Amino acid sequence: MENYERLEKLGEGAAGVVYKARDRRTGAIVAMKRLRPAGRNDGQLSEDLGREVGCLMACRGHPSLVEIRAAGRDASNAFLVMEYVGPSLAQVMRERAGLGRGPFTEADARRLMRQLLDGAAAMHGFAVMHRDLKPDNVLVDAHGNLKICDFGLSRFAAPTTGAPYTASMVTRWYRAPELLLGSREYDVGVDTWALGCIMAELLAGAPLFPGRTEMDQLNLVFDTVGTGDMTNWPSFVRLPRAGSPLCQRKRPPSRLREMFPALSAAGFDVLSGLLACRPDRRLTAADALRRPWFTGAESPDQARR
Ligand SMILES: Nc1ncnc2c1ncn2[C@@H]1O[C@H](COP(=O)(O)OP(=O)(O)OP(=O)(O)O)[C@@H](O)[C@H]1O
């Protein structure tokens, strides 16, 4: 990693610290992530790096997925070098709110969701589950285009390395109901649920389900979209927390439409499809892109700038 000159810190998360850096050989600006060993032994650190690098390598070449440039280790740290993109979508949304600019228009939300879904469809096509999609893990480039980053929790969903997976994945506010109910046999639907939460946040300017605890999270989800759909799912009874009183409580039907009265019918079709409680009824990223919201008359907002 001696080829890179470290510049300012860009961000810090549970897994590591990300710096802006300059490639001494070419002068190019890159982002360099140093994985923090915190309680991990050498073997685990190499395994974490290997998994993140493997998923990033599989996804290389898609404009909506951050590109890996190099990876390596020294005696105590592991490093990942990526293209430098720009601030996170979470930062951009906070800045917009600070400037009183409010949420994104439906046209802007559609342009941004098209990019995220396109990236997710490609990633899922390579059998990669991201498992931590949220506005902090989406970067915004200088032209306002989005790139999914932080593959630190991602893994391959290939048949050979199939379920059971770890249930405690995805940051709570973006966690799909099957994960909240303890499922260890989930699929890429956990990513599309998170994308539904992001779409709602773009349109509303605030997180859709800001739960304080896991159970509060489940309550918020069920209070918003109802439980009928989930409890009718044939696999529901096999979920570890299917017996939770939260699942038995009577709830009114979905009030998602009331929360987004100004959203077009085509936009709501995508939002409600991504936020289907039952994983088998949830839109896949590829299916979402085939819905009329995206396939309607080509408009300038749909083009990648
Ligand atoms: N390629 C990049 N270009 C520009 N900034 C980046 C890049 N990658 C990461 N960052 C910045 O660093 C922050 C942390 O990156 P990342 O999410 O990969 O780290 P992490 O330690 O896994 O974080 P967390 O624990 O929050 O998931 C991002 O939110 C972003 O602000």
UniProtKB/TrEMBL annotation:
Reactions it catalyzes: [DNA-directed RNA polymerase] + ATP = phospho-[DNA-directed RNA polymerase] + ADP + H(+)
Coiled-coil annotated residue ranges, if any: none
Single GO term (MF): RNA polymerase II CTD heptapeptide repeat kinase activity
Entry keyword set: ATP-binding, Nucleotide-binding, Phosphoprotein
Stretches assigned to the Protein kinase domain: 4-294
Family as reported in the entry's similarity comment: Belongs to the protein kinase superfamily. CMGC Ser/Thr protein kinase family. CDC2/CDKX subfamily.
Name of the featured protein: [RNA-polymerase]-subunit kinase
Native species: Lolium multiflorum (Italian ryegrass)
